[in-house]
Write a structure and sequence with these properties.
single chain; mainly alpha; about 95% helix; membrane; transmembrane; transmembrane helix
């Protein structure tokens, strides 16, 4: 059981390292060139969440889980309706309050990019050590 948990943690650390290291490795010019692409991809997060919730509700109905838990069904449907109605406001909020400030800081601040690279290196090292431990004990 603990081997599975350590495996998931190490894979999660490795997954997190790329977005942290990418701005420093790819550089300021790359960030400027791909700013629109990054902004558009982050603005699709609400649609991805709606898609996953829809799949979850469909699977829940097919396996009979949601029929037993009507409160969960009601909450999920309300969340989907609210997200559908407020879709444009959510994307504007994500763009103006989250994406643009982060991108501007990443483009301007060399220290921030280097700090993120150091954090990524630390997480990658921890993940590598966890994988070695998993291999030795499994």
């Amino acid at each position: 059981m603990w081997i599975k948990i350590l495996s998931i943690i190490s894979i999660s650390f490795q997954f997190i390292t790329f977005p942290l290291a990418a701005p420093e490795i790819l550089g300021k010019e790359w960030l400027k060139k791909t700013e629109v692409l990054i902004r558009n991809s982050i603005k699709t997060i609400p649609f991805i969440i709606l898609f996953v919730l829809g799949i979850g509700i469909g699977l829940g109905f097919s396996f009979g889980v949601i029929k037993q838990n009507k409160l969960i069904t009601i909450i999920l449907v309300i969340v989907i309706i609210i997200m559908s109605l407020l879709r444009k406001k959510i994307t504007l909020f994500l763009d103006s309050k989250i994406v643009l400030p982060i991108l501007n800081k990443l483009i301007i601040s060399d220290n921030l990019r280097f700090s993120l690279l150091k954090i990524a290196a630390f997480l990658f090292t921890i993940a590598f050590i966890l994988q070695i431990i998993i291999i030795v004990y499994s």
